[in-house]
Design brief:
Elements lengths: L6 H18 L21 E5 L8 H10 L4 E3 L6 H7 L11 E2 L5 E2 L12 H17 L4 E4 L9 H22 L2 E5 L15 H11 L4 E6 H7 L3 H7 L4 E6 L18 H10 L5 E4 L7 H12 L2
Parallel strand pairs: 1-2, 1-9, 5-6, 6-7, 7-8, 8-9
Antiparallel strand pairs: 3-4
Helix pairs in contact: 4-5, 5-6, 8-9
Length: about 300
């Protein structure tokens, strides 16, 4: 005959089981209380964070905080920032674009002035070949680039122009093991007139270039604005995607409270994982609360 269990004992047992379940389901749990890095479940999504979204925190303490959350990378940094990453043993999953001036004095390499203009190619090739070598020397492997704005150029012509220029740096990228990644951005809200604003256009560019060292940065926030159907799109085009960025929509803010934004990140992360993706997902939202609390919660939400 079983010994009767008191109500107090039963509640204590249930509370213990609930606590264990919480620990098991939170591989990227917050670490502010312990100051130590969490144990991340094997096979979990590899996460990074974009420093520009946290402008009020200096690089060194920000990298230290990212390390404490179990993040592997702080990204969109320049070569002068690499020593700080090395100090904490972190990666730069996506290195920032270089910029330079053409002989005519046009600054190229940033979002508006990119690879879709033949007259920019010589300058772009010079600055990108230098940056590729810097990325490789630091032990990193991905470098961002941009199509540039349309400025009344036909999309097909811009596609052809991008392919012509980018093919010229593929031998250097392949030699150094660096993947050049073009970001998909919305031209409806944030980057008016940007050319690489639909996945299909970017995929066609990948096919024209024909190198495993050229991929797309699928920004979930931007593509939700332009085309929606995020999970189906990323699954169908997984072979051409080298990196992901996150943010809540509308507003480009964090994901909490979840009932105030339309992107449901846990199933999106599970879909990315199901494609066999081994790269990084970069958190790129603008926090509305305490920045590190917001980041910690986003990391936890995406740790699938």
């Amino acid at each position: 005959m079983r010994t009767p269990i008191s109500r107090r004992t039963a509640l204590r047992t249930l509370a213990g089981a609930a606590a264990l379940t919480t620990v098991t389901r939170s591989p990227a749990a917050e670490t502010a209380k312990t100051g130590s890095a969490p144990t991340v479940t094997e096979g979990a999504i590899r996460q990074s964070v974009c420093k520009w979204c946290f402008k009020d925190i200096a690089l060194d303490p920000f990298v230290a905080a990212a390390k404490g959350m179990g993040l592997e990378s702080v990204e969109l940094l320049n070569p002068e920032d690499f020593p700080t990453l090395k100090k904490y043993g972190l990666h730069c999953a996506m290195v920032s674009n270089p910029t330079g001036k053409t002989p005519q004095g046009v600054t190229v390499g940033a979002i508006p002035k990119g690879w879709n203009r033949l007259e920019y190619h010589d300058t772009l090739i010079s600055i990108y070949e230098k940056r590729i070598a810097e990325v490789a020397a630091a032990g990193f492997s991905s470098l961002i680039c941009f199509s540039g704005n349309r400025e009344k150029m036909d999309d097909q012509q811009g596609l052809e122009n991008c392919a012509v220029g980018l093919k010229r740096i593929m031998a250097t990228a392949e030699k150094h093991g660096v993947t050049v990644v073009m970001e998909l951005l919305n031209s409806k809200v944030n980057h008016k007139d940007y050319m690489c604003d639909h996945t299909a256009w970017g995929v066609e560019l990948c096919k024209k270039i024909g190198s495993e060292r050229f991929k797309l940065l699928y920004d979930i926030y931007h593509m939700q604005i332009m085309e929606g159907d995020v999970i189906r799109t990323l699954k169908d085009n997984a072979a051409y995607i080298g990196h992901y960025h996150t943010a809540g929509n509308p507003g480009r803010n964090e994901f909490e409270p979840q009932d105030q934004q339309e992107l449901n990140y846990p199933p999106i992360m599970r879909a990315i994982k199901a494609t066999g993706f081994k790269g990084f997902v970069g958190q790129e939202f603008l926090p509305k609360r305490d920045p590190l609390t917001s980041l910690r919660e986003a990391v936890k939400l995406c740790a699938v």
